[in-house]
Amino acid sequence: MPKATIMDIRREVENYLGRRVKLEAHKSKKKLYQKEGVIESTYPSIFTVRVQEDKRKEQKLSFSYSDLLTQSVKIVLLDENETDGALLVS
């Protein structure tokens, strides 16, 4: 199976603009956080995910495509029923 490249990952992320995702990211060596949000924008080197913290607070997180390539960030697409879907990049 061929390895994914940065361009492959970028194209895949662009295909899922506006879709709900669950993301898992390493904050530090021992800390991991999980959030749900919507892929909002893609740029040449990064993409952004809008996360609803609570009813009044919204946060925008940005990640590089290399974060997905190195698996320091993992993204899972959520389907309409809010259940786990396919892993965006494997």
TrEMBL record:
Signal peptide: none annotated. Pfam families: VEG. It comes from Acetobacterium woodii (strain ATCC 29683 / DSM 1030 / JCM 2381 / KCTC 1655 / WB1). This is ABC transporter permease. Gene3D superfamilies: 2.30.30.100. One of its GO terms (biological process) is regulation of DNA-templated transcription. InterPro entries: Protein_Veg (IPR009366).
